[in-house]
Specification:
Order of helices and strands: HHHHHHHHHHHEEH
Strand order of the largest sheet: 1-2
Membrane topology: Multi-pass membrane protein
Largest sheet: 2 strands, antiparallel
Number of strands: 2
Helix content: over 70%
Main location: membrane
Strand content: under 5%
Structural class: mainly alpha
Family: Belongs to the cytochrome ubiquinol oxidase subunit 2 family.
Number of domains: 1
Pfam families: Cyt_bd_oxida_II
Number of helices: 12
InterPro entries: Cyt-d_oxidase_su2
Length: 335
């Protein structure tokens, strides 16, 4: 197999892993105002992702590092041209991480409320901007002959990209609320199931619009097939949640997000950064990749370490598989 194609697939796989795993983290963070009635409820929600959120977040670091090493031209154009939205994503992720660690350091309600708001914002901003970024990559952006982005920040906020951002926002929100239903019990679990049904219906409408637009304007036979599979998985996930099948619903939400990301990568291939102003300026897997030697070394490293990372993450989820309830929250943490 051509190593450039292999590494395009590996980068796609890493972003699938990131959006599936950190996606439900974002959803749980955004759900705080909707599912909690008091501080104990908020502690329950945060504890559902407490053991895994930072592990989930490392996927974007690995994805970014792989992008830098395998496709340095793509990395340079993306991170320079999309500097402001990516900086906002980074700031939001830092804000969220700090909030998880600091909200319980003092007992005052105002202190905790301040960090709870930061968790919500720190979850919603990347959930929206990742969709905006990937929609722009698929749509194409103006590039000069040196493959530098020549559009401004507001050029990234076009209708198609904004719809992409709203799609990821609603998908991640629903994914997270389904995860809450899977990981909790009692009244919070029932509230999460009801909310997931409502947000799932909204996600179906918005995601369907985005996938149809993508398929008609930028689609390939493979991407259209993947988009259709994602749509079916989303509808069945909402129905499964409504019927009380949280495990099935969560698995199907993960499949929805994974298939949707794969459909975008499929629509993009063999380009990695299409030029909307002149196709001759586009970055492809051929002109954006590293040398054959570099890709060979990276392939051996991935072959050795990627299975170990997957095994470790699977073990972590198995260890922390039990539901979290209000009874698990210490009394002193609830005040």
């Amino acid at each position: 197999m051509d190593l450039t194609i292999l590494w395009f697939g590996i980068v796609g796989f890493l972003f699938v892993g990131y959006f599936v795993l950190d996606g439900f983290d974002f959803g749980v963070g955004m759900s705080l105002p909707f599912l909690s009635k008091d501080d104990t409820d908020r502690r329950v929600l945060i504890n559902t992702i407490g053991p895994v959120w930072d592990l989930n977040e490392t996927w974007v670091i690995v994805a970014g590092a792989s992008l830098f090493a395998a496709f340095p031209e793509w990395y340079a154009t993306l991170f320079s041209g999309f500097y402001l939205p990516l900086l906002l994503i980074l700031a939001a992720l830092i804000l969220r991480g700090v909030s998880f660690e600091y909200r319980h350091q003092r007992p005052e309600k105002a202190w905790k409320a301040r960090f709870d708001r930061m968790i919500v914002v720190g979850s919603a901003v990347p959930a929206f901007l990742w969709g905006v970024a990937f929609a722009n990559i698929v749509r194409g952006v103006p590039l000069d002959a040196n493959h530098d982005y020549i559009g401004g920040f507001f050029g990234l906020l076009n209708p198609y990209a904004l719809l992409g951002g709203l799609t990821t926002l609603l998908l991640f929100f629903t994914h997270g609320v389904v995860f809450v239903a899977l990981k909790t019990d009692g009244e919070i679990r029932q509230r999460a199931r009801r909310l997931a049904t409502r947000s799932g219906i909204a996600a179906i409408a918005v995601a369907a619009s985005f996938l149809v637009w993508t398929s008609l304007a930028y689609g390939t036979p493979t991407s259209v097939l993947l988009s259709g599979a994602a749509a079916v998985a989303l509808v069945v996930a909402v129905l499964a949640n409504r019927a009380g099948g949280e495990k099935l619903a969560f698995g199907l939400m993960a499949a929805t997000i994974g298939l949707a990301v794969l459909s975008l990568f499929s629509a993009l291939f063999p380009d990695v950064m299409p030029a909307s102003n002149d196709p001759a300026n586009s970055l492809t897997i051929a002109n954006a990749s590293s040398s054959e030697y570099t890709l060979t070394i990276m392939s051996w490293v991935a072959l050795i370490f990627l299975p170990l990372i997957l095994a470790y993450q699977g073990f972590t989820y198995w260890i922390f598989r039990k539901r979290v309830t209000r009874a698990h929250i210490p009394v002193d943490a609830a005040h």
